[in-house]
Design brief:
Elements: E1 5-9, H1 13-21, E2 28-32, E3 44-47, E4 50-53, E5 59-60, H2 64-72, E6 79-80, E7 87-91, E8 94-97, E9 102-103, E10 106-107, H3 110-116, H4 121-132, H5 144-152, H6 154-169, H7 178-181, H8 183-189, H9 195-201, E11 231-234, H10 241-249, E12 252-254, E13 259-264, E14 269-273, E15 280-284, E16 286-289, H11 293-301, H12 307-314, E17 318-329, E18 341-343, E19 352-357, H13 358-361, H14 364-368, E20 372-379, H15 385-388, H16 392-407, E21 415-426, H17 432-443, E22 449-451, H18 461-479, E23 490-492
Parallel strand pairs: 1-2, 1-16, 2-12, 7-18, 16-22
Antiparallel strand pairs: 3-4, 5-11, 6-11, 7-8, 9-10, 13-14, 14-15, 15-23, 17-20, 17-21, 18-19, 19-20
């Protein structure tokens, strides 16, 4: 008998991780990627003589899904630790250190916050209200602005929380869900009236390591012996992971293979791949949909009983952004930049929203590009599409001008790479958790279908891998309840 066939739609890290999770399950897996390359938002190329990520450039080391998968594909020897993760906020005319005691921008110590100068005296007075006001009766999900701003004031949100969440989601706090984007804080806040106290409960005792940007995580806590570093990456770039996953998965992997139609058959599922002029039909016993919400919605809308999931998927918005990677001679900086970089509040009206001193954060880049400082500038938030419509050269010039204003760097960079991620980041807007529940309930009505990716349980790489494993488990549980259809036939029509 032929083994059951699983079709994985999407060759990003989620789809490839799902294929890898199925490698020893006695099924035949085909990964279908519509674009000419694998990897989705993971991509690496040369800048200034170094291989530098153009998409995601780090993963949380304390969640085991990412480092575990890297080990399973034989790349763990290439893991490197950051040289520094201390970050600042460029606001009120200078780069100011992040408070040492904060949870994704929500302060745990107002004296600590005051010392940074990020928030004005009036803003601090407003934030103190959180400590004495009675708890709020919260019914259902709220935006980050409503929940955090209601307790601590707008200035804390605008100058501290928004830069951190904006760096993760490229979204806006008035849209983002408090429950979905700050789940750990939301959980402990249910038993505390003060958000400051809630944030403090999630942090180690005072006197720990310097503040780090973007360390919020809803995933499992580290096991004994887990890496001490918050972040890690691959010296060859996280963009080297997709090829390793594809090669070790044992799956048939196809690029430029756009799935345009999905239909149920008496035996399972039929996928129509390719152009309307030369369509190709593939049969499968089960399907994992690992593409962004909009194309997933279009596929499920074609299926009987798929409308509910399709409707909920269509409600997920996406933000576009660009990464501008600039290489400067170290001598161009009047003073060596300190720390790993800085974030920029949207209210300050700058083009860049975040800057990473990649050569500081990842010391191996100094070895491969001696004498250079590689800088990564992030541009674009939800609603800022007009900025991203500028030509590459103009966008790079604007980012370099902001960098010069912040750091005093002189002259033009010696190498520039502009990478655009159109519709790259799903928005976890108010009601996201309910939306995901509706999606999964709708998909559960479709035998042998599962979904995974950044649109559901987290946009970080470990979260995507976790959702991929869940999808793999779901289709294997389904296949265990039925005899294989002997599918896998390919026919041209």
């Amino acid at each position: 008998m032929q083994p059951p066939v699983v079709a994985v739609i999407g060759g990003g890290v989620s789809g490839l991780a799902a294929a890898f999770a199925l490698r020893d399950a006695g099924v035949a897996v085909t990964v279908l990627e519509g674009s000419p390359r694998l990897g989705g938002k993971l991509e690496v190329s040369e800048v200034g003589g170094s291989q530098v990520d153009a998409g995601a450039e780090a993963l949380l080391a304390r969640r085991p899904e990412g480092t575990g998968l890297i080990d399973a594909v034989g790349l763990s020897s290439g893991l490197v630790q950051p040289g520094t993760t201390s970050a600042g906020i460029w606001t009120r005319s200078q780069i100011r250190p992040l408070p040492r005691r904060q949870f994704m921008g929500v302060p745990a110590d107002l004296d600590d916050l005051a010392a940074t100068g990020i928030v004005s005296a009036d803003g601090l007075v407003r934030a103190e209200d959180d400590l004495t006001r009675p708890g709020d009766a919260v019914a259902g999900d709220e935006s980050v602005t409503c929940r955090v701003g209601g307790r601590l004031g707008a200035e804390v949100v605008d100058r501290l929380v928004e830069p951190l969440l904006g760096g993760v989601y490229a979204g806006r706090c008035e849209d983002l869900s408090f429950e979905a984007t700050l789940p750990a804080l939301a959980h402990v806040a249910r038993e505390r009236s003060s958000l400051i106290d809630a944030a403090a409960s999630l942090l180690p005792p005072a006197g720990g390591a310097p503040a780090r940007a973007g360390t919020q995580d809803a995933g499992p806590r580290p096991a004994p012996g887990a890496p001490a570093a918050v972040f890690t990456t691959l010296a060859a770039g996280l963009g080297s992971l997709p090829a390793a996953l594809a090669g070790r998965s044992g799956a048939t992997v196809r690029t430029s293979a756009m799935v345009r139609e999905l239909a149920r058959t008496p035996e399972g599922w039929r996928l129509t791949v390719g152009s309307a002029h030369a369509p190709e039909a593939l049969s499968a016993d089960a399907v994992i949909i690992a593409v962004p919400a909009r194309p997933a919605s279009r596929l499920l809308a074609q299926v009987a009983d798929g409308q509910a999931a399709a409707t909920a998927l269509a409600e997920i918005k996406y933000a576009s952004m660009a990464i501008l990677t600039l290489a400067y001679p170290e001598s161009a900086f009047p003073q060596p930049p300190a720390g790993s970089g800085f974030l920029v509040p949207a209210v300050d009206g700058r083009v860049v929203k975040a800057v990473t001193y990649s050569s500081n954060k990842w010391p191996h880049l100094r070895q491969t590009s001696p004498g250079l400082l590689i800088v990564r500038c992030s541009v674009g938030r939800l609603g800022e599409e007009a900025i991203l419509q500028r030509e590459d050269a103009e966008l790079a010039t604007l980012a370099a001008a902001d960098l010069a204003a912040a750091t005093g760097v002189r002259g033009a960079p010696i190498d520039v790479r502009v990478t655009r991620w159109g519709g790259g980041l799903p928005q976890y807007s108010v009601g996201h958790l309910d939306r995901v529940a509706r999606i999964r309930a709708g998909v559960a009505k479709l035998p042998g279908v599962a979904v995974c990716g950044a649109a559901y349980d987290g946009i970080g790489i470990p979260a995507c891998i976790g959702s991929a494993r869940l999808a793999a488990d779901q289709v294997l549980a389904y296949l265990g309840t039925r005899a294989p259809a002997g599918a896998g036939r390919r026919e041209t029509r």
